[in-house]
């Protein structure tokens, strides 16, 4: 009788794409190398070695033509030595088959998750979403239904992702959803367009329904939120990172779903550098009155952003913060009941490219409280001392509206 690994090898070669060699608890995926779909081999490696084993990707390029759902892993090591390259040759396939994330009608190319996962890219293992094709196809439309996120880390606990490069993501790069105690370390993200179509909605990372998430040692170049906290995210640490060209650290958007309460609590951003981002940290909430429907309309939800700090940041940005309660809609500005309180910016230094330091258009229905800008020194690209514009802000420290 054949040994199991040999048997699997023979079985796998019947498929057109890559194949898996299993030895003990390690599954090594070998790509076809000729642009035939390697996703069936990858999914089978996770099935064979995703409970207490290792999934090994060699230093070659894998070609992925189909969605993948590899959730429910346990005590699993994923070792990425090569490049995972997503096909965008069949746009209609992705529009029809991308996996729903349960938020803003958005979808994903890959759902990955489980307990005690170590995903190591060693600083060179790469996700390549072939994003230029998507940027050209969407022509700047923000939420095109079915345009996939690169990766959704779902229902994942006590896990580490490190040393991974994400280039040219199809849309949002990764969302950490329904997860806790996940460390995202030394991650490089670059999604930029080489023509006049913007790399819009290419967030570096988003958190959703997740707690105790650490982002350390990130470098992000993109055309949207560098890292964003959405619906029910708490105890988030972002440190020792550098952000280029995007929008900076974002809270929201929140309040898009009528009747839902969304809390963003205890977000600490420290020792980071922001170069050419629009903001350091900003919040966008929907109006308290619903106007239209998700994904591109909404409002009427409520919630809170509290107890968060931005400290020891170096920057060259347009302004440090903007709080706006009427994202995407006209009027009804004073209706949001999203409570923003106890937010501190401290130890900031660097150059502001405009005269506005902060623009805080809060809502009269729930004024912003305890906003502090402390121990900071700015220089300005223009001849100004800086302005702070406020609406419905009840208490400030370190600055005057
Ligand atoms: C691609 O490679 C696989 C094996 O990895 C092989 O089965 C298949 O025939 C090749 N396809 C083409 C078009 O060369
Ligand atoms: C991966 O392979 C390429 C050639 O295909 C080589 O240039 C590169 O150094 C290899 N990287 C590592 C980390 O082994
Ligand atoms: C994970 O695997 C360990 C060891 O086999 C086992 O004790 C534990 O119950 C598993 N956890 C889950 C969630 O399957
Ligand atoms: C986590 O998984 C690794 C193998 O990937 C294992 O060595 C370790 O014991 C696991 N930790 C726990 C707490 O189960
Ligand atoms: C593209 O995907 C669509 C939808 O899944 C499918 O019907 C069609 O056959 C695919 N086209 C090619 C060339 O594979
Ligand atoms: C992924 O697979 C799991 C297990 O089969 C299933 O429960 C889950 O709904 C799937 N997720 C998506 C987004 O399809
Ligand atoms: C988005 O999903 C919501 C439910 O979550 C649904 O009511 C709405 O019709 C969907 N919108 C679109 C444009 O598909
Ligand atoms: C995560 O680890 C903590 C402590 O190490 C443990 O108490 C908890 O059960 C683990 N969570 C899961 C989902 O395995
Ligand atoms: C601050 O972050 C940089 C990386 O951007 C790192 O080299 C440095 O060690 C960090 N400083 C502290 C005090 O952690
Ligand atoms: C304000 O938030 C900080 C964390 O940013 C926290 O340490 C402090 O206790 C909070 N203050 C109040 C009054 O809740
Ligand atoms: C900020 O920097 C100061 C001096 O460089 C240091 O004492 C302090 O611990 C730092 N704070 C944080 C939160 O990193
Ligand atoms: C800067 O503005 C002040 C007051 O508006 C003005 O007196 C001063 O001449 C300006 N300096 C330059 C270099 O334009």
TrEMBL record:
Gene Ontology CC? extracellular region
Q: From its record, what is one biological process in GO terms?
A: carbohydrate metabolic process
Q: What is its main location?
A: secreted
Signal peptide location: 1-17
Q: Sorted alphabetically, which keywords does the UniProt record give? A: Cell wall biogenesis/degradation, Glycoprotein, Glycosidase, Hydrolase, Secreted, Signal
One GO MF term on file is: polygalacturonase activity
Q: Which Gene3D superfamilies does the entry mention?
A: Single-stranded right-handed beta-helix, Pectin lyase-like
Protein location: Secreted
What family is reported? Answer: Belongs to the glycosyl hydrolase 28 family.
- Please name the PANTHER family in this protein's record: PTHR31736, PUTATIVE (AFU_ORTHOLOGUE AFUA_7G06410)-RELATED
Query: How is this protein named in the record?
Result: Glycoside hydrolase family 28 protein
Q: Which organism is it from?
A: Mycena albidolilacea
Q: What is the lineage of its organism?
A: Eukaryota, Fungi, Dikarya, Basidiomycota, Agaricomycotina
């Amino acid at each position: 009788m054949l040994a199991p690994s040999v048997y699997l090898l023979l079985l796998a070669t019947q498929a057109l794409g890559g194949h898996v060699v299993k030895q003990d608890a390690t599954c090594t995926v070998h790509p076809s190398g000729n642009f035939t779909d390697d996703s069936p081999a990858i999914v089978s490696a996770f099935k064979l070695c995703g409970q207490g084993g290792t999934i090994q990707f060699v230093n070659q390029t894998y070609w992925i033509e189909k969605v993948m759902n590899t959730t429910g892993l346990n005590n699993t090591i994923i070792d990425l030595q090569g490049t995972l390259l997503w096909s965008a040759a069949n746009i209609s396939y992705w529009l029809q088959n991308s996996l729903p994330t349960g938020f803003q009608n958005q979808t994903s190319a890959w759902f990955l998750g489980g307990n005690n996962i170590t995903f190591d890219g060693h600083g060179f293992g790469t996700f390549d979403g072939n994003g230029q094709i998507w940027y050209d196809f969407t022509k700047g439309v923000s939420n095109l239904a079915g345009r996939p996120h690169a990766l959704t880390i779902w229902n994942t606990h006590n896990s580490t992702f490190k040393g991974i490069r994400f280039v040219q993501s199809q849309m949002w790069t990764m969302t950490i959803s329904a997860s806790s105690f996940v460390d995202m370390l030394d991650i490089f993200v670059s999604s930029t367009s080489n023509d006049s179509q913007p790399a819009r909605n290419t967030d570096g990372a988003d958190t959703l329904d997740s707690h105790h998430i650490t982002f350390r040692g990130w470098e992000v170049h993109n055309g949207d939120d560098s890292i964003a906290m959405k619906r029910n995210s708490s105890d988030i640490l972002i440190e020792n990172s550098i952000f280029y060209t995007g929008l900076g650290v974002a809270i929201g958007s929140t309040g898009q779903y009528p009747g839902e309460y969304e809390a963003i609590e205890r977000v600490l951003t420290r020792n980071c550098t922001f170069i050419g981002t629009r903001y350091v940290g900003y919040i966008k909430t929907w109006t308290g009155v619903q106007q239209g429907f998700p994904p591109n309309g909404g409002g009427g939800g409520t919630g809170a952003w509290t107890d968060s700090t931005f400290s020891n940041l170096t920057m060259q940005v347009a302004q440090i913060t903007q709080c706006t309660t009427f994202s995407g809609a006209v009027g009804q500005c004073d209706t949001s009941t999203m409570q923003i309180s106890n937010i501190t910016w401290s130890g900031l230094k660097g150059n502001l490219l405009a005269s506005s330091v902060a623009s805080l258009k809060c809502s009269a229905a729930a004024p912003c409280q305890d906003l502090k800008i402390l121990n900071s020194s700015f220089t300005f690209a223009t001849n100004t001392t800086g302005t702070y514009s406020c609406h419905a802000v009840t208490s400030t420290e370190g600055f005057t509206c």
